[in-house]
Amino acid sequence: CLQANTLKEADDFRAYGLKNRIEIVPNGVDLPEFLTTEDTESTEGRKRLLFLGRIHPKKGLVGALRAWAEIRNSPSAIRDSEQWQFVIAGWDQGGHEAELKALCADLGLRIANSGLSESLKLNSYKLKTHPPEAEGADVVFCGPVFGEDKEALLRSADAFILPSFSEGLPMSVLEAWAYGLPVVMTPECNLPEGFACQAALEIRSGGGSFQGSDFSFQQGLRTLLEMSDRERAAMGMRGRRLVEERFTWQKVAAQMKELYEDILSG
Q1: 114: pLDDT confidence band, cut at 50, 70 and 90?
Q2: Rounded distance, CA 88 to CA 51, Å?
Q3: Comparing C-alpha atoms, which of 144, 140, 49, 43 is closest to residue 92?
Q4: With left for phi above 0 and alpha for psi between -120 and 50, is residue 241 left, alpha or beta?
Q5: Can you give the pLDDT at residue 14?
Q6: What does the chain look like in DSSP terms, one character per residue?
Q7: Whole-number mean pLDDT of the chain?
Q8: Residue 49, strand partner residues
Q9: Are the C-beta atoms of 89 and 51 separated by less than 8 Å?
């Protein structure tokens, strides 16, 4: 029996010519404690749209940044769009981060290279304070984050984006949902159940063409920014419920146990 993480992966097994039995059992994530608004301190920090992952061309950040610039620089800019900040966290691969920073300069986006995690660590995830050098930036590059720093960053975010051209099963989206974040992602993230339960907004990658993706990315981001705080929170909670129902390690372990018992019973 072959284990696939997603339906797309199972289809790829078949396309490759494998005839074995296939069972779809995803990877899992831990479900963190959920904090209500009563548990967190009120602050006036800017809202954060977070990307967290490998900084590589296939992640679609070129199209996302172009769409972000169009929204920020448009004469008919979305109301309160200036209250948002695009935070890019993750490790650079092949010098792509430098390319993204050069693109931001070309697009007129103010950037900051900031240890956001240090600020979060000092102030705890209850605060949405920003280091002074990052406060006025449109885009913040904060490098890789792990452990408590990653948790702090996820808890401080207001939405999550994965504009990828190709994924297996993106753990970053599952983690974002686990923290109650609304998600903007492409169909290539292979989590159609997120669209089905309205836990995510769909953006189209244009078949891998940076230029072809810009318009769809802009539409998706505009929809996200034009939603009310209540609507975004409701979308994030639908994602958290989806994780609770299908993607916790307890659920995954139960599926694997059932599969092994089925195979052993013949």
Answers
A1: confident
A2: 5
A3: 144
A4: alpha
A5: 97
A6: -EEESSHHHHHHHHHHT--S-EEE----B--PPP--GGGS----PPEEEEEES-B-GGG-HHHHHHHHHHHHH-TTPPTTGGGEEEEEES-B-TTHHHHHHHHHHHHT--EEE--HHHHHHHH-TT-----HHHHT-SEEEEE---HHHHHHHHHH-SEEEE--S--SS-HHHHHHHHTT--EEE-GGG--HHHHHTTSEEE---GGG-HHHHHHHHHHHHHHHHHS-HHHHHHHHHHHHHHHHHHTBHHHHHHHHHHHHHHHHT-
A7: 87
A8: 86, 159
A9: yes
Work out whether the CA dihedral 208, 212, 214, 215 comes out positive or negative. Answer: negative
Reported confidence tier of residue 44, pLDDT bands at 50, 70, 90 = low
Residue 179: both structure tokens together: 């923290």
Of 63, 66, 97, 15, which is closest to residue 165 (Cα–Cα)? 63
Given a contact cutoff of 8 angstroms between Cβ atoms, the answer to whether 97 and 140 are in contact is: no
Residue 55 Cα distances to 5, 16, 25, 167, 174, angstroms: 23, 29, 27, 13, 18
The answer to which of 79-88, 94-103, 251-260 has the lowest mean pLDDT is 79-88
Token look-up 């590589």 returns: 56
Residues contacting residue 196 through CB under 8 Å, at least 6 positions apart? none
Q: How far is CA 144 from the centre of its chain?
A: 15
Instruction: State the residue for tokens 């979305």.
Output: 78
Length reported for the chain: 266
* Joined tokens for residue 177: 């949902």
The more confidently predicted of residues 82 and 197 is: 197
- Whole-model pTM: value is 0.89
C-alpha to C-alpha distance for 35 and 233, rounded to whole angstroms = 12
